[in-house]
Specification:
The protein is an alpha/beta fold. It contains 14 helices and seven strands.
């Protein structure tokens, strides 16, 4: 059987493209679109046909319908398109030369973007916001001068402006790694219970700092504070305890003071037992009964139990380690005139009793 010869397949004819739509005259008004010049006659173009250009307009339309808007089939170039292209190229060439000579100058197109509608709206909004903030600040300053309470909006704005997450994170890291019991134990093991001897003279009243006001509950289950206990007192001995070791330390100062000034008017002895760790604060609450048995009965109403953090208050008073006991001698104005830490030495006890007598006599 002879081989089968494939027949030649004729492809279907290509569809005829539809005619181009009748384009408006404004498509060819290149000068009007670019804004580089005005039409002939000196008057701005309105998108229509300029008088005297009927022949050119009819030529453009016929060229557009024939698929040759630029008139290249008839070897004709629209003089307006050619002139606009030349001016545009010349403009970009000049701007490129200027940008190459001066790097700080704007590149072509930047000036147009900055003058755009969105940029103008953005500038107007920024100016309005700035004006409103200035008016609000003036109102808050006026309210502050008249001693009016701050509103909720003002407090929120001030908190948001003063909040610095990076500074807060750094502070928390420092407190976590440089203000813990482990560092205090290492310091105690390295330096011992006594690091320096107390001063042999009182701090001048002008240089003395005021003792912070710490609030808590006394052993008689009443609310009290340091300021309320030392009020109207010529001399006060305020002791701070945060451990059993510190309790033994402060008693070496309190015992001789009680023996000499037990019945003296204007002399007050105050003890503050603080524990800011939640776990140890719970243990302190459980051991309150044992503390009441150990402390003399006449000191129960001036023994404060505090379960809050007093980290900033300790910095003011110079308490650098919570494991040892600290005592502060306070005058009638609430100023710390003398302080000591650790177990008392004989010369420190003698100086303390002498200072307490001077302060109690100075108010008479």
């Amino acid at each position: 059987m002879p081989p089968r010869i494939p027949t030649k397949v004729t492809p279907p004819p290509m569809p005829t493209p539809p005619p181009l739509p009748n384009l408006p005259n404004s498509v060819y008004d290149v000068d009007e679109i670019l804004g580089t010049s005005t039409p002939r006659g000196g008057a701005p173009s309105s998108g229509g046909v300029v008088e005297g250009d009927e022949d050119d307009d009819s030529t453009r339309k016929s060229a557009a319908l024939s698929g040759d808007p630029a008139g290249t089939i008839n070897n004709k170039v629209d003089p307006k398109v050619d002139a606009a292209s030349e001016r545009l190229l010349e403009r970009f060439a000049n701007e490129a030369k200027r940008a190459a000579a001066d790097p700080s100058s704007k590149m072509p197109g930047q000036d147009m973007n900055e003058n755009s509608y969105l940029h103008r709206v953005n500038r107007q909004m920024q100016e309005k916001v700035k004006k409103l903030e200035e008016e609000l600040q003036k109102k808050w300053q006026q309210d502050a001068a008249e001693n009016k309470p701050k509103g909720l909006k003002q407090r929120i704005v001030e908190m948001s402006r003063s909040y610095d997450p990076e500074a807060k994170r750094k502070k928390l890291m420092e407190e976590a790694f440089h203000d813990g019991y482990f560092d205090e134990i290492k310091e105690l093991a390295k330096k011992g219970e006594k690091w320096w001897d107390a001063e042999a003279k009182m701090v001048p009243a002008k240089r003395a700092v005021s003792i912070p006001n710490i609030v808590g509950r006394t052993l008689t289950r009443k609310q009290a504070s340091i300021h309320s206990l030392i009020e109207n007192q010529a001399c006060s001995l305020v002791a701070f305890v945060s451990s059993e070791l510190g309790a033994r330390h402060v008693m070496t100062y309190i015992t001789p003071a009680l023996e000499k000034f037990e019945n003296t008017q204007g002399v007050k002895i105050v003890q503050v037992n603080n524990e800011d760790s939640p776990t140890k604060a719970f243990m302190l609450r459980l051991s309150e009964m044992f503390i009441r048995r150990r402390v003399p009965a006449e000191l129960h109403d001036s023994y404060i139990l505090n379960f809050n953090s007093i980290r900033e208050e300790r910095k003011i008073m110079g308490i650098t380690n919570r494991l040892v006991g600290w005592v502060h001698l306070v005058d009638s104005a609430g100023r710390i005139r003398w302080n000591a830490h650790g177990p008392a030495k004989p010369d420190e006890i003698a100086n303390m009793l002498s200072f307490m007598e001077q302060l109690s006599n100075s108010s008479k």
